[in-house]
């Protein structure tokens, strides 16, 4: 027999539904929530109370000039509560605060060079989080951490980060939680960008879309049927390490040779150009020299775009999405790079799938991705989605 003190599964689902309605629609009254969700007034009232108690909603009075009896407005907290986003990457890491509405407090953005050791990484990030929380004296509901690597969703341990090996085999969310006393979640970078699109961006009304992040590795997050594709260990949709150059290809960070990740990313272009000119160059330096007419990278860029198009075509064929959002600085090198890649990808993909798939540049950002990761985790804690 179910305990009367334990909320029913349906009640949990209703609480989550109310939160999702306000996430998608913005500031609403209880009556608005009732109309948008199809849930009865008493049930909405109970769900709202639960969300207010949890700090996931706040309410404010309507304007004084409102006609009739005004209802209080419900909204996601912007300044009365916060979540922390942490971005781990091979060159720089970042810590940023955000409201639960996805409004980044960019004045609190702290970007720093990635430490050389794992222990230093954890100490540095934990210290910055504690400082951020103590300085502002605003309740922090959790921390979202993103990493460009393979994350085991079952235990939060990183299988492999091809370009950030100091975190291989580690569980940063567990270690940071122990030092900050905050709830922490670790999310693969491209998955977090997909969550960002679904929660705050163009993917809100989409059930089937893909987010590709090829700024360092070849990361892919997939929504299919309105659900994030996960798999046994959270590795579903991983195509970065498909072999595309079996003979003579560059050794990948995973240990294999000729992976898609070694030829179809921003870092792949940087490596190939650096090899030709005989010195290590960063992407921004290459971009500046290209724009000044001091460096011709046509062969390297053409090759990188060709392989990126192969990866995009494979994603279209396998998942049949309505949209693909791509994050890459390659498209900043020339006005026609994005269109060229899109044409090549569509010509390689199956026509029934490619003809109905829109390929777009991602408008999300890595900071909002980390925030969306913890917001999604908090929503999951409320209960399963009510469809």
From TrEMBL:
It holds the Pfam family ROK. GO terms for molecular function: DNA-binding transcription factor activity. SUPFAM superfamilies: Actin-like ATPase domain, Winged helix' DNA-binding domain. InterPro entries: ATPase_NBD, HTH_MarR-typ, ROK, WH-like_DNA-bd_sf, WH_DNA-bd_sf. Residues 18-62 form the HTH marR-type domain. Belongs to the ROK (NagC/XylR) family. This is N-acetylglucosamine repressor. It comes from Gimesia fumaroli.
């Amino acid at each position: 027999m179910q305990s009367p003190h334990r909320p029913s599964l349906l009640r949990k689902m209703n609480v989550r539904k109310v939160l999702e309605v306000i996430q998608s629609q913005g500031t609403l009254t209880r009556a608005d929530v009732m109309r948008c969700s199809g849930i009865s007034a008493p049930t909405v009232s109970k769900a709202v109370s639960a969300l207010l108690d949890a700090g996931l909603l706040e309410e404010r009075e309507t304007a004084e000039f409102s006609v009739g009896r005004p209802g209080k407005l419900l909204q996601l907290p912007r300044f009365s509560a916060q979540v922390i986003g942490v971005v781990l990457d091979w060159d720089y890491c970042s810590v940023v605060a955000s409201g639960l509405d996805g409004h980044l407090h960019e004045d609190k953005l702290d970007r720093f060079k990635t430490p050389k050791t794992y222990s230093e990484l954890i100490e540095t990030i934990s210290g910055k989080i504690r400082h951020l929380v103590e300085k502002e004296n605003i309740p922090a509901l959790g921390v979202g951490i993103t990493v460009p690597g393979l994350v085991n969703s079952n235990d939060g341990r990183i299988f492999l980060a091809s370009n950030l090996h100091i975190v291989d085999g580690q569980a940063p969310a567990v270690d940071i939680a122990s030092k900050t006393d905050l709830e922490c979640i670790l999310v693969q970078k491209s998955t977090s960008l997909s969550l960002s699109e679904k929660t705050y961006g163009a993917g809100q009304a989409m059930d089937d879309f893909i987010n590709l992040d090829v700024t360092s590795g070849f990361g892919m997050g997939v929504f299919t049927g309105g659900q994030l594709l996960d798999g046994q260990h959270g590795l579903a949709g991983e195509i970065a390490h498909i072999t595309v150059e079996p003979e003579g290809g560059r050794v990948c960070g995973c240990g294999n040779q000729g992976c898609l990740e070694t030829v179809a990313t921003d870092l792949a272009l940087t490596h190939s150009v650096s090899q030709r000119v005989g010195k290590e160059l960063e992407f921004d330096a290459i971009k500046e020299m290209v724009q000044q007419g001091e460096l011709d990278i046509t062969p390297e860029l053409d090759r990188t775009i060709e392989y990126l198009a192969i990866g995009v075509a494979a994603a279209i064929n396998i998942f049949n999405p309505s949209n693909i959002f791509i994050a890459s600085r390659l498209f900043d090198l020339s006005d026609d790079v994005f269109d060229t890649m899109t044409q090549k990808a569509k010509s390689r993909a199956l026509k029934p799938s490619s003809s109905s798939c829109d390929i777009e540049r991602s408008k999300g950002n890595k900071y909002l991705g980390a925030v969306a990761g913890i917001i999604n985790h908090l929503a999951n804690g409320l209960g399963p989605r009510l469809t």
